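From the methods appendix. Each design record in this collection lists the tokenized structure first, followed by the designed amino acid sequence. Records were kept in a plain field format so they could be parsed without special tools. The example shown here is representative of the layout used throughout.

RECORD:
FOLD TOKENS (260 positions):
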């Protein structure tokens, strides 16, 4: 007798699956060791699903290697399945968004996922500063000066006053991910102490800044932002999520500024 005759067909029912409240996509750099870990905590919640795809990139961070990611971005965005029906999708690279261009990144993501709202850490930083009502910041990066300068110019062109800039001056993304949170905290406290800075922005999704944000804010008495924090906040708000994350700083107490 054929064994298949003894295989029972089971009845089942379906529901909305994971992400009944929000489905969020994230494009992660191949060399990034931090952003998935930090965003999974920021976006965790009942009915919220986070899905990742990795984009090829060079370990050496230069304007040229960052711009090179543009050619792979459409295919990688396509690895996030269209039938998941994403509410929001983020490209997780601050310096890459600077070099490729925020609008170009958004255009590519929308071409693949026309119904999804889009973000990247640079755009998210601008949205976060608007939500907090701040314009004067100190900028901390891990990048070489030529990458840092382009980011500074981009933020200033958006009307953000940058009165202090400091960098760890590392072009190796593997090294950047190994910079300790304690070293990042000390950098925040040092550069953020200036009276002409109302907030500090720590750029780069590889930097482990999130664990020290609340502590640094308490010591400085002013908001501290990081690439992963602002991206997580912006994606959450774009997807209609309003929850606070007490350990993630003042930003998560705010909502998006909408323009009529």
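DESIGN:
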């Amino acid at each position: 007798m054929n064994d298949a005759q003894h295989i029972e067909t089971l009845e089942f029912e379906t529901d909305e699956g994971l992400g009944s409240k929000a489905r969020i996509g994230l494009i992660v750099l191949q060399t990034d060791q931090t952003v998935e870990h930090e965003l999974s905590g920021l976006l965790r919640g009942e009915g919220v699903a986070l899905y990742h795809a990795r984009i090829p990139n060079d370990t050496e961070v230069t304007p040229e290697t960052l711009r090179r990611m543009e050619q792979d971005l459409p295919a990688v965005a396509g690895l996030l399945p269209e039938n998941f029906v994403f509410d929001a999708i983020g490209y997780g690279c601050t310096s890459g968004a600077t070099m490729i261009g925020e609008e170009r990144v958004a255009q590519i993501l929308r071409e693949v996922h026309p119904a999804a709202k889009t973000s990247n850490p640079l755009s998210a930083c601008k949205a976060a500063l608007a939500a907090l009502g701040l314009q004067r910041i100190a900028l901390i990066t891990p990048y070489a000066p030529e990458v840092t300068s382009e980011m500074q110019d981009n933020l200033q062109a958006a009307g953000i006053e940058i009165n202090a800039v400091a960098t760890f001056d590392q072009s190796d993304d593997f090294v950047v991910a190994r910079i300790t949170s304690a070293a990042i905290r000390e950098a925040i406290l040092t550069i953020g102490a200036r009276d002409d800075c109302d907030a500090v922005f720590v750029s780069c999704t590889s930097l482990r800044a999130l664990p020290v944000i609340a502590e640094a804010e308490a010591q400085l008495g002013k908001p501290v932002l990081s690439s992963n924090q602002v991206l997580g906040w912006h994606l959450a708000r774009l997807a209609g999520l309003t929850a606070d994350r007490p350990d993630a700083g003042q930003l998560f107490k705010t909502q998006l500024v909408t323009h009529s």
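APPENDIX NOTE: The chain has eleven helices and eight strands.
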